[in-house]
Amino acid sequence: MTFENTIDTPAAAGALIRRQRIGQGLTQQALADAAAVSRKFLIDLESGHERAELGKTLAVFAALGLSLVTTTPIPVGMDHDPERRDYAATFTDLLAKRDFEFATKMLADYASASLKAGRPLIQRSPQLNDPQWSAALAGITNYTAHRLNQPAPDWTKRIQPLNEAWMPAESYRTVREPMKELTKSETPHELAAMNVFIRERSLATA
User: Fold this and answer.
1) What tens digit of pLDDT does each residue of 139-150 get?
2) How far apart are CA 111 and CA 121, in angstroms?
3) CA-CA distances (angstroms) from residue 79 to 15, 75, 83, 90, 171?
């Protein structure tokens, strides 16, 4: 008889990963290397850290030969595939709804998906009415083009740098001065040139 167990908490996922790792004779460092994550991330994951990044967690599962299974159909199509998503339309919709927190998350998603796809995914001007978000998208587009050794799309040249420094995260929460300084020091020059500041580690996830 096969018994099914539900993984419904971070602690349960961590306990399963730890047991499988030990059962396979792997050290934490060996598993971290196989999954291309840091040992610190794995330590946090095994201890049931509630904010473990999903993509990295799935990489650890895959390295152990594990997978997550659902009986619910998984949505398919452009809206659910980062490399086929219409990011211009996505940002237009999110800004109209004033969902700035998710829009900020989607900036990183756009960068990551572009790097994975091998080209900036916004090839035409997104036609946003907000100069801050237009500058952010232009900066990220230039950043990904540079990372991929490609020319940036022409539309980015028409976007003017902001008059004042801006961090997208400030659109939905307070950013303390030490974090502002750290963010500015770790922002790629393509974004800094637009006077937009996002840490590179938040973008280069592909």
Assistant:
1) 999 999 999 999
2) 9
3) 33, 9, 10, 9, 24
